[in-house]
Write a structure and sequence with these properties.
Elements lengths: L3 E17 L2 E15 L2 E7 L9 H9 L2 H6 L3 H7 L4 H18 L3 H4 L8 E2 L2 E3 L4 H10 L5 E5 L5 H11 L4 E5 L6 H13 L2 E5 L19 E3 L9 H4 L5 E4 L1 H4 L2 H13 L3 E4 L6 H4 L3 H4 L4 E2 L16 E3 L2 E3 L29
Parallel strand pairs: 5-6, 6-7, 7-8, 8-9, 9-10, 10-11, 11-12
Antiparallel strand pairs: 1-2, 2-3, 4-14, 13-14
Helix pairs in contact: 1-4, 6-7
């Protein structure tokens, strides 16, 4: 079962700055993994995230530390024990799923006893900017079914109101990225209800969310930075009503699948999200997305150039990649849209 391993960094420039409360991104810096065996190649991608103490160099080094074992045939189950949750494990886990699908000719969705993929409504993100610029960005995607608004602690309601005026019919997710205090959360409750916000994502810092236990929110609150794996769920009960499953946090689809089932059993609303990444990064997340009430997988549509055979976008609906892209993802050729570049511009 000898394999060959390839690990490399890759940078995808963005067509517009992607701003959130903790900084701005101009390119998606990813790690790409390929595992070759018996003439088949399995691929995976991850996004190292500084918020979790990761860097591209460190993730590559972590993967390289397992090179000999990976080439000798280490599988997904052993990988869970050998690497901690995070970007390194995610890239390898994805490559192993893809490789198995190619070797066995059984798509990942079939291995999980699912039907082939169908288009899904995905959130389209309006990144942090002035209220005027965010309103303009929202007007460009006003027909989307779901819009995600990035805010910080600086007059967030003005930004939310600007987006709501520009997109009166869209469902809204508001994401402060841990930048709010409990006082801001209390003070915005009436306005969030008036503006018909459907979900509030990680308003407080993950290490300060104990205040949520004594707080009754009028809008469901979703754990993002506070939820990585199944082990985190007990502490979230009574604080959050939803969780955001991201494969770069869980360390891949294997743990994400476990987290999905455990969270549903606990009654959590399910959201599936991603970092700003390519279609290779979101392809495994589609297996979780079909069970999610909120899908936020628009990362590839921020790129100047994605994989040419990657995911597509049509009217706020994410079109899965065609068969053969990753793990047996399927989309009819007639459904493939044209380029989506420019849909999310937030600068005047």
């Amino acid at each position: 079962m000898l394999r060959e391993l390839s690990v490399r960094p890759r940078s995808f420039p963005l067509h517009s700055p992607f701003r959130i409360a903790r900084g701005v991104k101009h390119a998606a810096e990813v790690v790409t993994v390929e595992l070759a065996q018996a003439g088949c190649v399995g691929r995976g991608e991850s996004v190292p995230y500084a918020r979790y103490g990761e860097s591209v160099a460190a993730v590559i080094a972590e993967i390289e530390s397992l090179r000999d074992d990976l080439c000798a045939g280490v599988g997904r189950d052993e990988l869970q024990a050998r690497l901690a949750p995070g970007a390194a494990r995610n890239a390898l886990d994805a490559a192993l799923w893809d490789l198995e699908a190619r070797l066995t000719r059984v798509p990942v969705w079939s291995q999980l006893a699912r039907p082939p993929h169908q288009p899904l409504v995905t959130a389209l993100t309006v990144s942090l900017d002035t209220p005027q610029a965010m309103g303009q960005a929202a007007s460009n995607i006003a027909d989307a079914g779901l819009i995600k608004i990035k805010v910080d602690a600086d007059d967030p309601l003005a930004r939310i109101e600007a987006v709501r005026r520009a997109a009166p019919a869209a469902r809204l997710i508001v994401d402060p990225n841990e930048s709010w205090t409990i006082d801001i959360l209390r003070e915005t409750q009436d306005a969030l209800v008036r503006l018909k916000v459907d979900l509030l994502e990680q308003p407080l810092p993950a290490d300060a969310d104990g205040a949520l236990r004594e707080f009754s929110s009028r809008v469901p609150i979703c754990a993002d930075e506070a939820c990585h794996t199944v082990a985190d769920l007990p502490a979230l009960v009574g604080r959050y009503q939803a969780i955001n499953i991201k494969l770069d946090k869980t360390g891949g689809l294997t743990e994400a699948w476990r987290l999905l089932r455990a969270a549903k059993a606990e009654g959590f609303i399910i959201m599936v999200g991603c970092m700003v990444c390519s279609s290779l990064g979101i392809a495994p997340a589609l297996e979780i997305a079909r069970d999610a009430e909120f899908v936020d997988l628009d990362g590839p549509f921020w790129l100047v150039d994605d994989y040419p055979d990657g995911a597509g976008l049509r009217g706020g609906r994410l079109m899965p990649p065609p068969a053969g892209f990753w793990g047996g993802c399927t989309r009819a050729a007639a459904s493939r849209p044209g380029s989506s570049t420019g849909l999310f511009r937030t600068t005047p």
